[in-house]
Give the backbone structure.
Amino acid sequence: MKKQTLTITELTAAISKAAMELSMHKSKNTNLVKYLRRDLARAKTAKRQEELNAKA
């Protein structure tokens, strides 16, 4: 299975959608929001690191 790469904006939208589905009891995967938030944090960290490396 190929891992899908999402942008920060797409990850933010996916978190909102997953949280809404979870609150409406449409989703069975309660860990999805947690995993998406973790991925968003990693993406933001990588972006910051690239920006710092570009300045140096």
Q: What stands out?
A: The CA atoms of residues 18 and 24 lie 10 Å apart. The mean pLDDT is 84. Residues 8-55 form one domain.
